[in-house]
From TrEMBL:
Pfam families: Pribosyltran. Keywords: Cytoplasm, Glycosyltransferase, Purine salvage, Transferase. It catalyses: XMP + diphosphate = xanthine + 5-phospho-alpha-D-ribose 1-diphosphate. This is Xanthine phosphoribosyltransferase. Its main location: cytoplasm. The keyword Mitochondrion does not apply. The gene is xpt. InterPro entries: PRTase-like (IPR029057), PRTase_dom (IPR000836), Pur/Pyrimidine_PRTase (IPR050118), Xanthine_PRibTrfase (IPR010079). Residues 49-157 form the Phosphoribosyltransferase domain. One of its GO terms (cellular component) is cytoplasm. One of its GO terms (molecular function) is xanthine phosphoribosyltransferase activity. Converts the preformed base xanthine, a product of nucleic acid breakdown, to xanthosine 5'-monophosphate (XMP), so it can be reused for RNA or DNA synthesis. Xanthine binds at residues 20, 27, 156. GO terms for biological process: purine ribonucleoside salvage; xanthine metabolic process; XMP salvage.
Length: 190
């Protein structure tokens, strides 16, 4: 998606050969106009997939996911990283380990918001090793629903997330696919 790729080149900062900082429009400050364009692009790509719910992980997935859900005219559901006591007993949970951050956490989905007949589009900001997306997909499957697709804003194609998700049978669409990062270097595939 050209608008996102151009914005990453203009404002993104490669901090190392593995980490891209995009705090100015995605992870800290959010550009609603860009997020709306991102949502319309996901809608264009997934419009014939029969999507009934958009699912994302708090917090940085929420902005692009809400515009995607609006464009597809379906509800958006947020997976929680912190368990609320009032959700106890009526939730699906799975453990996620982040290799990038060296942390792990429980991801929680209330049983009320994904049903067996749902076709779910998972949206997230970054795809690195695919742990978060794989965990989100696990929760969808625990609910008996179908993962119809996975939409990612920024794929770090030099990490193994995409291949893991594809091997698991998921349909992955990434708007910006980065082949290489380095201090001051951001390169796309193709
Ligand atoms: P994985 O799920 O693909 O295996 O990714 P990983 O564990 O590496 O990601 C952990 C967190 O770091 C995620 O955010 C992810 O979006 C973010 N992340 C991964 N690579 C990059 C990167 O190059 N740049 C930036 N800015 N973020 C990256 P999170 O902890 O879930 O936080 P939130 O931002 O969604 O709140
Ligand atoms: Na994220
Ligand atoms: Na993030």
């Amino acid at each position: 998606m050209k608008l996102l790729k151009d914005r990453i080149l203009a404002e993104g900062k490669a901090l190392s050969d593995s980490v891209l900082k995009v705090d100015g429009f995605l992870n800290h400050q959010v550009d609603p106009e860009l997020m709306q364009a991102v949502g319309l692009d996901f809608c264009e790509h997934f419009k014939d997939y029969g999507i009934t719910r958009v699912l994302t992980i708090e917090s940085s997935g929420i902005a692009p996911a809400v515009y995607t859900a609006q464009a597809l005219n379906v509800p958006m559901v947020i997976l929680k990283k912190q368990t609320s006591k009032i959700l106890n007993g009526q939730v699906f949970q799975t453990n996620i380990t982040s290799f990038t951050k060296g942390t792990s956490y429980e991801l929680t989905l209330s049983r009320d918001y994904i049903h067996r007949d749902d076709r779910v589009l998972i949206i997230d900001d970054f795809l690195a090793n695919g742990e978060a997306a794989t965990g989100a997909a696990r929760l969808v499957q625990m609910a008996g629903a179908t993962v119809a697709g996975i939409g990612i804003l920024i794929e770090k194609s030099f990490q193994n997330g995409r291949s893991r998700l594809e091997q698991a049978g998921f349909d992955v669409y990434s708007q910006a696919r980065i082949s290489r990062l380095g201090e001051g270097i951001i390169e796309y595939l193709e």
